[in-house]
């Protein structure tokens, strides 16, 4: 029985993969020696997000900001050349732990989970979490939005704060704070939670109609970080104290905040976290896989819902465009050709962002419907070409023969062209459906909690991107295999009908 054989092979493959990953996830980078470990001699590779005004951001193609200038001052003090690199905030801790970066300077709050991955230096500023809401919204404290939808940047401590304090489980995660703040300003969210300094600066810069709700919720100290056991930590602490003592820190701080904020630095939380995390190890792949099953199953349901609705709409639109393209009326063919060229010539992520962010003044689409419409429109252009080529594959002689036997044009279409075209279309259409399932991962960038966003949140929370992204790959693989099996069964049914008709 081939189907049972495939299931057994697939189960064995998954089991072997999990065992391999469990072994890999416990591996630690090599340690040893008293000299600071640097990726390249004479250079200090420092990671930051580049999306966190006023701490690190791009200005005219140049990376700048408070974090950047502090990193530059530390590198100068240590006699090293600064090499600044940017990446998504949720990936920075793991990147530092794995040796991709020498040091992390990205307004990162030390937590026990993070301290199991990296060593934190002394703090370089203290701030805290602030809730921002739309101007005019009645909000006296965070209790005013209890149970509501609140946006945060992925990988920050704010999601944990909201859940642990019972504020809300309806947390939307974004790649950057500014995106969460923009959605709060449009009314898609009840509020956005971010650092007080960051929020105030970004709201002013972007001209958003947002105001703080209540007082600052927490006081947090942000620290540079290096890989576990790297003697570079001691040099960072010495350099940090030096730039505070010689006035370099005060000069940088005054430039961005109008005052020297070094007296506000509180190192007690950093020491407490590092002591608590000493000797602890994070969970392995198997433990994380089991822990996140309910979360991923829920996310898979959202992925399938978005994809299914989008594909139904895409097939309808694609059929209409294909009919126009095969029409004898020239203007209809021109419109269809232009539509297909425009949609296939622009990336899906750009179409999604135009719908979600670009049209807010005309229509305020939810994340679900922005994702559905973008996927539907994008796939409709490809489906239109699949349908057109399928009908083009039907020999004209068969159509002419059916007409000569007395069939009407409609009968020839339904009894000859459609059945034959369907057999040609189905395998290619199945492949397009599979592509659409995987393309649905792009809605993660507008805060939708589907499979890929869930993997990003898992990677950010557990600091194990290998486990997170291989876990989500397993779920996508299962969905694709089920979809492939359904298409194969349908093809077999059509082939059986074909053989029965011949008999």
UniProtKB/TrEMBL annotation:
It is found in: Cell membrane. Pfam families: BPD_transp_1, SBP_bac_3. The chain crosses the membrane at residues 299-322, 363-384, 466-490. GO terms for biological process: amino acid transport. The keyword Transport applies. It is a multi-pass membrane protein. GO terms for molecular function: transmembrane transporter activity. Residues 300-487 form the ABC transmembrane type-1 domain. It comes from the Bacteria. Keywords: Cell membrane, Membrane, Signal, Transmembrane, Transmembrane helix, Transport. The keyword NADP does not apply. Residues 1-27 form the signal peptide. One of its GO terms (cellular component) is ATP-binding cassette (ABC) transporter complex. PANTHER family: ABC TRANSPORTER MEMBRANE SPANNING PERMEASE-GLUTAMINE TRANSPORT, MEMBRANE COMPONENT OF AMINO ACID ABC TRANSPORTER. Belongs to the binding-protein-dependent transport system permease family. This is ABC transmembrane type-1 domain-containing protein. It comes from Parenemella sanctibonifatiensis.
